[in-house]
Structures are given as structure tokens and as C-alpha cells.
Amino acid sequence: MSDSQDFDLIVIGAGSGGVRLARMSAQRGARVAVVESRYLGGTCVNVGCVPKKLFVYGAHVHDDLEDAAGYGWRVPMDDVSFDWPTLVANKNAEIERLNGIYGRLLENAGVEIIRGTASIQDANTVVVGDQRYSTKHITVATGSWPVVPDVPGKECILTSNEMFYLPQLPRHAVVWGGGYIAVEFAGILAGLGVKTTLLYRGDLFLRGFDDDIRRFTEQEMRKKGIDLQFNVTIESIETEGAHYQVNLSNGEQLETGLVMAATGRRALVDGLGLTDLGIELNASGHVVVDDYFQTSVPSISALGDVIGTPQLTPVALAQAMVLSRRLFGDGQGEMDYSAIPTAVFCQPNIGTVGLTEEQAREAGHKLRIYRSEFRPMKYTLSGRDERCLMKLVVDDQTDKVLGAHMVGPDAGEITQGLAVAIKAGATKAQFDATIGIHPTSAEEFVTMREPVA
Predict the structure, then answer these.
(1) Which helix (H) or strand (E) covers residue 422, if one does?
(2) Radius of gyration of the chain from Cα atoms?
(3) Beta strands in 338-387, from DSSP E residues, in sequence order
(4) Are 243 and 171 in contact (CB under 8 A)?
(5) Residues that are catalytic
(6) Which of 114, 144, 187, 372 has the highest Cβ tally under 10 A?
């Protein structure tokens, strides 16, 4: 490593992937700096998965209070109240705590934190404000940013970023989109007492998930009172006093106090100067890299959401470990994107890992499908009309479990364990030979015996 340069590595972006890369590289003896213009921890910690799940927990409390009566607890529901500013303030305090932890992790590893907006002058120079820093390697880990469609009245639309800091909740809200962010926020708002409408341009939301999971989630969300409207989009928005009139593509109008767009995210590369350096962006605007995260400029790499791989924090963390090892370790290691587990924290939750039934059939597998639907034990006394769906996709020739999918309480927690088995290539016979934990919902995954298709 050359002493003529300020650093061996400058990481642009202190999100999950950038922080992990900086820390691991510094621990391997590299001189590392990380540049951040907003907040330590990136989207996930500040305006993504962490505060979102805290809101999901808060939104589910009302259901728990209602269910208490079936277990002998007398909770006067007509006297129950909810204070949104309290939830936001407590969430903010937790995020500030996590920001501090990220800062200490970097400092303790010997990483220099540079506050400001970075641009890349050349293959070995990063500019922040009026300062220039030379470095052997540069990594772009700037993440992604919400996209708001260009419709009349778009200035009235909020994104997930702003939703975490709303000063107050409206009586009615419109959520525009059909991905997991839209579905999650529709559940949060409805759970907190907001009359909620979700609009999606397609036939059914959660494109790319297993079709059984999508249809079952639709059924359960409608039970929660969420107004799901498909094959419709927003044409324009007009301000009417403190409210909005949302004009739809089907000619109808909605009166609402809030419009949130969860209609996609773009790679956050503004002002970096990548194209001036000859670094290629693909048609969707993501940075093009090879299997080892190197761009067309050998000294510049990129990882995380900005390169268009699955937009999941654990994926960025794994990429950072591979890249650090390649830059400052033994030069080995590569990413495996197969069987990545994920969860959607709608209500009830979705957990999924491996191939969907549709993907498996398209790949040419002859399948056996196992499916079970039931009321979770918790709701047998409370009488709540919420059901659980579990599904296994099995290759009929090899008996290998290709995918596991679930809608129900704690689906993410359950799916994490299943992901280990599927990653290891477990067969349905091995699932069947596994003793279940009784009584749990999870045991259903090892007791499904008869295929339904």
C-alpha cells in the first residue's frame, strides 16, 4: 500500500454496506475514510427497515388489545387512545442511538468519517467541499432514493422518507404502489386507525412473489379494512384546503389527507461524476459492475442498492465482506445470490425463500406443491378472523425443497430458519423426518404430508 496517498480506500456512503466495508478493510490494516452527507446507517437505519418495523410493532398493538378479551383481560377499547407524536419521538430516539453506535464502530476501527457531499475527480481522487483526498481505491455505496412519478400535483406527494417524520396522522391516506414498501405502509396506517386506500396499476400487488402468497395477502389485508384498488393509477392531484383530491385513471376521485408514493427507487448517483469518468450505468440507472464489484475503472468499485442487486441490507453486508476480502485480504470470495430469504412486514407478515411455484415451473421443474392454511392458535380464543398460509415447492424428481413461503405471524422469524435448510439443499424427506415443535405454527412446515398439486 502506497504511503503517497491519503488513504487506501475511500467509501462514499455510510449505509450498511459502506460501513461494513470500511470497518472490515480498516481491521485488515487499510487506511480508510468514509464520506457521508446525511446520516450514518443509510436508508435501513434511518428511513427504512428499522423505523418501519418499529411502526409495524406499534400498528399491531390495537389488534393485541382487542385479542386480550378472549384471554380474560378487560381492556375498555372505547377508552383506548393512540398518540402518534409519542411513537415518532421514541422512534427518533432509537435511531439517534443507532447513529451513535455506527459512528463509534467506525471510529473504533480507525476509520475517518468525512462529513459532506462527495464527487469523484479521477480514478484516485475524491473531492468533498474544497478538500481533495487521494486514495488507491474508491467504493460507491450511495444506495437508492424514492422516485415520485411526474404527475400534476406531484409536489403534494410524500415518500417513505417523509412518512417517518409526519407531524400528525390524517384521517384518510392514499398509498400509491404495489411493492413491499407500499404494502407495509398501508398496513401501518390502517393499524394506527387511518382509513387507507392502496392503488396499484397492475392486476395484483407484490409482483415477483409466489402467486398463492400474493392472493392470500390480498385476502387478509382486505379483512383489515384496507381498500385495495388494482388496475388503476393516479392521473393528477389537486389541493382542496387542507385536503387533496386524487384523480384516478378510471375517472373516479378520492378525497384524502395524505398521498404517499411507493412507486420505485433509483440509484443515488447524482453529482458523483461517474459517467464523466467512463463508468457505465445500465438502462435503469444502476452502476454496472463485474462479479467482484469492479466498475469499468479498475480502482473504482460499487456495492449495495446502487448496483441493482436485491435491495436488502444483508445483501449489502455480504457484498462488503466479499469486496473487503478481495481488496485487502486474500483476494478470494464471491457472492451467491441464490435462495436469499426475505420478509414483508405487512400484517400478517410474509416470509419467503427460494423459488416461487411460477419460477420453478418456468425453470422446467416437475413439481409437488404442499400447502396448508389454518387459523393460528393465538386467535382461537380471541376469535380474530386472521389465517396463516404455508407452502413448500418441491422438485418431484430430486425431492429437493426449492422454495418455502408463508403468510402469518412471525413469518420472517420462521423463514430465517428454513433458509438454512434450503440453502443446504434439504429434501422433503428430511423436512418430514424433522420433529416439529408443538404447538407452534412453524411445525406445519415439517408435517405437511399430502401434496395439493
Answers:
(1) helix 411-423
(2) 24
(3) 342-344, 350-354, 367-374
(4) no
(5) 438
(6) 187
Domains of the chain: 7-145+266-328 (3.50.50.60), 154-263 (3.50.50.60), 342-446 (3.30.390.30)
3-state secondary structure 170-213: CCEEEEECCCHHHHHHHHHHHHCCCEEEEEECCCCCCCCCCHHH
410 neighbors 420 (Cβ within 8 angstroms): no
Cα 363 to Cα 359: distance, rounded to the nearest angstrom = 6
The residue whose grid cell reads 385479542 is 67
327 — alpha (psi -120 to 50), left (phi > 0) or beta? alpha
For the full predicted model, state whether its pTM sits above 0.90.
Answer: yes
37-49 pLDDT per residue, tens? 999 999 999 999 9
Please identify every stretch of the chain with a pLDDT value under 70, giving residue numbers as ranges: 1-4
* Omega cis (within 30) before 348: yes
Q: Quick count: other Cβ atoms within 10 Å of Cβ 252? A: 10
Contact indicator for 12, 126 with CB cutoff of 8 Å: yes
The HSE-up count of residue 139 (CA atoms within 13 Å, CB side) is 34
**3-state percent breakdown (helix, strand, coil) of the chain, nearest 5:** 35, 25, 40
